[in-house]
C-alpha cells in the first residue's frame, strides 16, 4: 500500500486537467503543488536536519531572479532559468551556509531571516541588474492555458518527492536526523556535521530555487517585495510544514493544500480579506500549542481527541 | 579634507550616535528576554509598534506629548508582555515537539497577529505626531560665533537620546542594586543554580518578558516624535534588535548598549556615503562581519582584555 500510494496520487493529479476545471481552479491546484514542493524542500532542512530556516525566500527569490534576468539581460526564454537556477542557488546556498551554519538553533533561524532581507534590499538597490522595484515582466507567455504549467510543476513535485524520499531513506537521512536530535553526539560519532548540514541546506535551497524559477515563468512578473517576502514566502513555507506535519513525507502536501485553500477562502470573504495574516497567525499559534508536530505528525493524537469527543 | 566634508562627517557621526542611543534601548529589551528565557522574541518590533500606537492615540485624542506617554505605554506594554508570556509562550515551553524552535515560530505568529490587528484598526497609512518642536534644533554657531564649521543638533533627537540614557541608567540601577534585578542576572547566567538558590524562575520569566516589552514600548514612544508610524514597521526593528544582540554578545546588557551605538553610527555612515536605500544592507554587513570575526560579540573582546588572555 505504502509503495504504490505516491504513483497513485501522482496519477490522480495528472488526470485533473482532463476534467475540464475552470482556470481559477487550475491556478489553485498549481499553487498547491508549488507550495508542497517548497514545503518538502524546507522539510528536508528544517524537519529532518533540524535547521529551522526563516529565510527560504532568499533561495526562492534567487531562483526567480535567475529566470527573470536570463530573460531581460540574455534574451533567453525564462524556462532556461529552471536548470540554471540550480547553479545560481547552489552558489548562494554555499555562501549563506558558510555564514549561517555557524549559528545554532534559533540563531540560525534569525541568521537566515537576515539573509533573506539582505537579498531583498540588494535586489531593490541594484537597479541596473534587477530593474529594482519596477520588477521584471515576462512579456511573452508560453501558454495561455494552464494545463502545461500544471504538468511541469507536477513533474517537479514528483521528482522532489522521489529525491526527498531517497535521501531520507539513505545514510544521509540518518545523519540528518542524528544532527537534529543532538549535534554534539552526532559529531562525536564521527559525522561531519558541517558537511552534512551544508548538503541539506544546498539540496533544500536548490529545490526551492527551481520552484522560484517556475514561479517567474508561471506568474510572468516578479519584484523584490514579492519573491523575497518575509511573511508571504518564508513564514508561509514554515506554516505549510508546521500545519501539515514536520518530518513526514506527506505533511508538506497536506499543509500546502490547507494553507492555499484557507488563504483563498479568507480572501474571498469581503470583510475578512484584510485580516488574513491574523488568521494565519492564530492558526500558527493554535497548531504550535495543540498539534506541535502538525496534522500528519500528530495523527494519532488527533484521532484520540476526536474519539474522546464522540464518547462524551 | 575640506571643511564641508568634515562638517558632513561630524554631522553624520552625531546623528549616528543619537540613533544608536535609541537602538540600544530597543536591543536591551531583546537581550534581557534572550538571557533569561533563552528564546528570541521575534515579536519584539511589533511590541514596539504597539507602544508607538499607544502614544499616537494619546496624542491624537488627548494631545498628550509622546514623551509623557512613556508613562502610559510602559505599564500597558508590561501587562501585554506578561499576558503573552503567561498564556502563549509558557505552555509551548512545556510541549514536546520535533523542532525545538517552536517558541520562536510562535513569536512570529504573535507578531503577525499584532501587525495585522493594527492594520485593521489604524489602516496602513503612515502616521506621525506633529509636535511643535519637531523641527527645532540647536546650532553650533549659536554658542561659538566664529566656528569654522556648522553643526546642528535636532531637539527631538537629543531629547529622545537623553531619555533613552535615563531609562537605561534606571534599568542598570534596577539590575545591579535590587534583589529582583540580581535574580534576573542570576537566572540569565545559570538557570538551575538560580533555581537551587531559591529564585522563582517561573515568575521571573513572566516578569522579564514584561520588562523587555515595557522597555521596547518606551523606545517606541521616544522614537515617535522623530519617526513615522505604520503597522508593518515592527519587522525591521526586530531585525535591528537582533543584530544589536549578536553584535553586543548574547544576553549582555553592556554589549547591547555598545552594539546599538556602533550600529547607529555605521548605519548613519552608510546612508550618508552609499545612499539611503543601502542603510539596511550596511546593518547586515555589520551583522555578518560580527558573526564571522567575533562570534562572541563585543562582550567577548572586553572580557579578553580584562583577564589579559
Written account of the structure:
The complex is a heterodimer of chains A (about 300) and B (about 300). Chain A has one domain (about 5-230). Chain A is about 75% helix and about 0% strand. Chain A has helices at about 5-15, 25-50, 55-75, 80-100, 105-125, 125-130, 145-170, 170-180, 185-190, 195-220, 225, 230-245, 250-270, 275-290, 295, 300-310, and strands at about 135, 220. Chain A has a two-stranded antiparallel ribbon. In chain A, helix 2 crosses helix 13 (about 250-270), helix 4 runs antiparallel to helix 10 (about 195-220) and helix 12 packs across helix 13 (about 250-270). The mean pLDDT of chain A is about 85. Chain B has about 300 residues and is mainly alpha-helical. Chain B contains 13 helices and 2 strands; from the N terminus they run ααααβαβαααααααα. The longest helix of chain B is centred in the N-terminal third of the chain and has 35 residues, at about 5-35. Classes of the chains: A mainly alpha (about 300), B mainly alpha (about 300). At the A-B interface, helix 5, helix 12 and helix 14 of A face helix 3, helix 4, helix 10 and helix 12 of B.
What's the short story on this structure?
The complex is a heterodimer of chains A (312) and B (309). Chain A contains 16 helices and 2 strands.
CA-atom Rg of chain A in angstroms: 19 Å
Structural class computed from helices and strand pairing of chain A: mainly alpha
How are the strands of the biggest sheet of chain B laid out side by side? 1-2
Question: Within the largest sheet of chain A, what's the order of strands?
Answer: 1-2
SSE layout and pairings?
The complex is a heterodimer of chains A (312) and B (309).
Chain A: H1 5-14, H2 23-48, H3 56-73, H4 81-100, H5 105-125, H6 127-130, E1 136-137, H7 147-169, H8 171-181, H9 183-188, H10 193-219, E2 221-222, H11 224-227, H12 230-244, H13 251-268, H14 276-290, H15 294-297, H16 299-311
Antiparallel strand pairs in A: 1-2
Chain B: H1 3-37, H2 44-62, H3 70-94, H4 102-122, E1 137-139, H5 140-143, E2 152-154, H6 155-177, H7 179-189, H8 191-196, H9 201-223, H10 234-248, H11 253-273, H12 279-293, H13 298-307
Antiparallel strand pairs in B: 1-2
Amino acid at each position: 500500500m505504502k509503495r504504490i500510494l505516491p504513483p497513485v496520487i501522482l496519477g490522480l493529479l495528472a488526470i485533473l486537467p482532463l476534467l475540464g476545471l475552470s482556470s481559477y481552479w487550475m491556478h489553485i491546484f498549481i499553487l498547491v503543488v508549488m507550495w508542497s514542493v517548497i514545503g518538502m524542500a524546507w522539510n528536508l532542512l528544517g524537519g529532518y536536519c533540524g535547521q529551522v530556516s526563516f529565510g527560504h525566500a532568499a533561495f526562492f527569490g534567487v531562483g526567480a531572479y535567475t529566470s527573470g534576468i536570463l530573460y531581460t539581460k540574455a534574451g533567453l526564454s525564462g524556462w532556461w532559468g529552471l536548470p540554471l537556477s540550480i547553479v545560481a542557488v547552489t552558489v548562494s546556498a554555499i555562501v549563506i551556509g558558510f555564514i549561517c551554519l555557524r549559528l545554532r538553533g534559533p540563531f540560525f533561524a534569525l541568521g537566515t531571516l537576515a539573509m533573506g532581507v539582505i537579498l531583498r534590499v540588494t535586489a531593490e538597490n541594484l537597479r541596473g541588474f534587477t530593474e529594482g522595484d519596477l520588477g521584471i515582466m515576462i512579456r511573452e507567455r508560453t501558454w495561455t492555458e494552464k494545463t502545461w504549467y500544471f504538468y511541469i510543476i507536477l513533474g517537479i513535485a514528483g521528482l522532489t518527492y522521489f529525491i526527498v524520499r531517497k535521501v531520507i531513506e539513505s545514510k544521509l537521512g540518518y545523519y540528518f536526523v542524528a544532527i537534529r536530535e543532538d549535534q554534539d553526539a552526532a559529531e562525536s560519532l564521527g559525522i561531519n556535521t558541517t558537511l552534512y548540514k551544508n548538503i541539506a541546506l544546498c539540496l533544500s535551497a536548490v529545490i526551492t530555487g527551481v520552484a522560484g524559477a517556475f514561479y517567474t515563468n508561471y506568474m510572468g512578473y516578479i519584484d523584490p517585495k514579492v519573491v523575497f517576502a518575509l511573511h508571504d514566502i518564508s513564514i508561509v513555507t514554515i506554516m505549510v510544514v508546521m500545519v501539515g506535519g514536520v518530518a513526514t513525507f506527506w505533511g508538506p502536501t497536506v499543509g500546502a493544500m490547507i494553507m492555499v485553500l484557507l488563504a483563498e477562502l479568507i480572501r474571498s470573504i469581503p470583510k475578512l480579506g484584510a485580516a488574513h495574516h491574523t488568521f494565519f497567525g492564530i492558526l500558527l499559534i493554535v497548531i504550535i500549542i495543540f498539534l506541535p508536530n502538525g496534522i500528519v505528525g500528530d495523527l494519532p493524537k488527533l484521532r484520540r481527541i476526536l474519539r474522546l469527543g464522540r464518547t462524551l | 579634507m575640506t571643511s564641508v566634508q568634515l562638517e558632513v562627517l561630524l554631522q553624520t557621526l552625531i546623528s549616528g550616535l543619537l540613533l544608536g542611543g535609541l537602538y540600544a534601548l530597543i536591543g536591551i529589551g531583546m537581550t534581557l528576554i534572550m538571557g533569561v528565557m533563552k528564546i528570541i522574541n521575534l515579536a519584539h518590533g511589533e511590541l514596539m509598534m504597539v507602544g508607538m500606537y499607544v502614544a499616537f492615540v494619546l496624542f491624537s485624542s488627548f494631545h498628550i506629548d509622546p514623551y509623557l506617554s512613556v508613562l502610559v505605554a510602559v505599564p500597558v506594554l508590561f501587562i501585554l508582555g506578561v499576558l503573552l508570556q503567561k498564556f502563549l509562550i509558557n505552555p509551548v515551553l512545556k510541549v514536546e515537539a520535533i523542532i525545538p524552535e517552536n517558541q520562536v515560530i510562535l513569536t512570529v505568529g504573535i507578531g503577525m497577529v499584532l501587525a495585522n490587528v493594527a492594520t485593521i484598526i489604524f489602516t496602513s497609512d503612515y502616521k506621525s505626531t506633529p509636535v511643535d518642536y519637531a523641527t527645532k534644533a540647536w546650532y553650533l554657531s549659536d554658542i561659538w560665533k566664529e566656528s569654522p564649521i556648522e553643526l546642528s543638533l535636532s531637539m527631538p533627537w537629543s531629547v529622545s537620546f537623553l531619555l533613552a540614557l535615563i531609562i537605561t541608567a534606571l534599568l542598570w540601577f534596577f539590575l545591579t542594586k535590587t534583589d529582583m534585578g540580581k535574580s534576573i542576572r542570576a537566572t540569565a547566567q545559570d538557570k538551575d543554580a538560580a533555581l537551587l538558590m531559591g529564585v522563582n524562575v517561573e515568575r521571573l520569566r513572566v516578569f522579564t518578558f514584561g520588562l523587555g516589552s515595557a522597555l521596547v514600548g518606551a523606545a517606541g514612544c521616544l522614537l515617535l516624535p522623530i519617526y513615522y508610524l505604520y503597522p508593518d514597521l515592527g519587522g525591521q526593528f526586530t531585525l535591528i534588535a537582533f543584530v544589536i544582540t549578536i553584535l553586543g554578545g548574547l544576553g549582555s546588557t553592556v554589549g547591547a548598549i555598545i552594539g546599538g551605538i556602533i550600529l547607529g553610527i555605521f548605519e548613519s555612515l552608510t546612508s550618508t556615503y552609499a545612499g539611503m536605500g543601502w542603510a539596511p544592507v550596511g546593518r547586515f554587513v555589520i551583522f555578518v562581519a560580527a558573526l564571522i570575526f567575533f562570534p562572541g560579540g563585543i562582550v567577548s573582546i572586553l572580557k579578553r582584555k580584562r583577564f589579559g588572555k
